[in-house]
Specification:
By secondary structure, the chain is α+β, with helices and mostly antiparallel strands. The longest helix is centred in the N-terminal third of the chain and has 16 residues. The protein is flat, with a radius of gyration of 21 Å.
């Protein structure tokens, strides 16, 4: 009996040490009721939220976030494995919130400065306006219905 218990603990220990998580890499996204783009939204998540993975179904992940379970598409997240054994360690470097946001978009201050130097006529204000343009779920569903679009 005792060797069986030891074997059991040995087999489950990797799941206790490493928990697979996903980090949201989009400004805002949705955890959906089912693994379809137009499935009802259960919870809204934002950039850098950490989601616990239950399993993967095709291009969708089933996740848990703050007590809510649902699906999120792989394009909205990035895989990360967190070692629970190293959570108490200190040291290393830290990044500012602006640096993290730029890195999430693939930019750092040097890259942004080089774009401005190489392309002085780029209109970053237009990009900001586009990023801030929001369409509600109701508006989106009305558009789909009026256009008789197929959700499959």
């Amino acid at each position: 009996m005792r060797p069986l218990i030891i074997l059991f603990l040995f087999l489950i220990s990797p799941t206790l040490v490493y928990a697979q998580t996903l980090t949201v890499i989009t400004k805002q996204n949705a955890i959906r009721e089912s693994c379809r783009f137009f499935s009802p939204i259960k919870k809204t998540v934002v950039y850098n939220d950490v989601l616990e993975v239950t399993f993967q179904q095709g291009e969708w992940y089933m996740v848990n976030f703050k007590g809510v379970q649902g699906c999120i598409h792989k394009s909205a997240v990035e895989k990360k494995s967190v070692s629970l054994t190293n959570l108490g360690s200190s040291g290393g470097q830290s990044a500012s919130g602006d640096e993290v946001a730029l890195a999430g978009k693939g930019f750092n201050p040097q890259v942004e400065a080089s774009y401005k130097t190489q392309n002085p006529n780029l209109n970053f204000q237009a990009v900001n306006r586009i990023e801030n343009y929001n369409v509600s779920e109701n508006e989106l569903m009305n558009f789909i219905e009026s256009g008789k679009l197929n959700l499959q």
